[in-house]
Amino acid sequence: MDMNSLFSEAQKLIPGGVNSPVRAFRSVGGTPRFIREAAGSKVIDAEGREYIDYVASWGPMILGHSHPGVVQAIREAAGRGTSYGAPTEIEIEMAKRIVAAFPAIEMVRMMSSGTEATMTAIRLARGYTGREMIIKFTGCYHGHADSLLVKAGSGVATLGIPGSPGIPRRLAELTISLPYNDSASVRDAVRSFGGDLACVIVEPVAGNMGVVPPRPGFLETLREITREKGILLIFDEVITGFRIAYGGWQNLASITPDLTCLGKIIGGGLPVGALGGRREIMEHLAPTGPVYQAGTLSGNPLAMAAGIATLDLLRGKSYSALDKMTETLCSGYRNLFARKGIPVTINRVGSMFTLFFTGEEVTDFASASRSDTERFGRFFQGMLAEGISLAPAQFEAGFTSFAHTDEDISRTLDACGKVLEKL
Ligand code: HOZ
Known about the structure:
Blueprint: H1 3-13, E1 35-39, E2 42-45, E3 50-53, H2 68-79, H3 89-101, E4 107-111, H4 114-129, E5 133-137, H5 154-158, H6 169-172, E6 175-178, H7 183-193, E7 197-202, H8 218-229, E8 232-236, H9 249-253, E9 259-263, E10 273-277, H10 279-282, H11 301-315, H12 319-340, E11 345-349, E12 352-356, H13 365-369, H14 373-385, E13 388-389, E14 398-399, H15 406-422
Parallel strand pairs: 3-13, 5-6, 5-7, 7-8, 8-9
Antiparallel strand pairs: 1-2, 2-3, 4-10, 9-10, 11-12, 12-14
Helix pairs in contact: 2-11, 3-11, 7-8, 12-15
The chain binds (4S)-4,5-diaminopentanoic acid.
């Protein structure tokens, strides 16, 4: 079936034709590409067209698609059964790797999505502290649990939904959303609400309003203030975990959060999430403690096998080489835009990057929002026509992988040159 027929068929059966809103091309227009298969740095659509892929399934595919080592691990695990609903040795193996990679994590609970990890993190923070209010940052997206869908990034920002119908107002009122990178507003909020605050949750490097790095001192200030007031600090490293380094941003920044949320890469492309932290806090989770969390498919053997294979393969990889390749791509983009006099701000942290269509520095959601999203849409469509697949929204991160080659980068920059001619 051709792409348009697939999309109309899908729209009859699936809301918006997609199983996650950001895939629907709403902000860039046109028909989403239905993907048939993927290998290495490439995805192939249902009409047989090949694209160099910078979506990477929104982050997990750091080794590239269909890595033979990961596929083999999944095949072998599947042959032994796909789910038991009982503990397995492979879950201990996964826990060992996560605990070894994160000094702040003494215990970890596996789940099936990043949303479950962040949702459980705030429930645990509330249960542990006996307080109800939470602080998050505008434009940060922590999945779609009720308390966290307040002034969120990702598809929520792309579709312009500030809050979401269906979330009780009284629950949303317990969430304070502050500007990212603004330490002073955190100090003010803690001064006003300190005794009622259970936690501060933050993407240590924001990825869901496009990539926005933390200003020097911002995360350190969060750590200092929360520690003083007995508020838990939660790092959402669902995107940054094992992407920025073998471990997370917290390893590079030498900051110890109380709880850490993981997902994406640790599942090697299968559905996964994890919540880790200090033993004394984690033991408040059932069955050792009263804070309830559960999941039929938690610690699923296929997800564990794919995740462990991915982590073990990542051990031998050079993150600095990946960073260097990503910088080559970003500086190539910068030069091409400068030559055409088209304003762009490119934020890159490791192998995550975003081209914001604005000449201003982007340090928070307000500055990200000043991007020309209409121009971004035209750039996106132009690149797609040239065989380059970018995230179909301005407020998202792009990702390179260890499967991308120098040739992929130069083909991408050639495509960009052609697209800018017509922009
Ligand atoms: N920015 C989202 C996750 N970090 C994209 C994935 C989705 O919503 O489908």
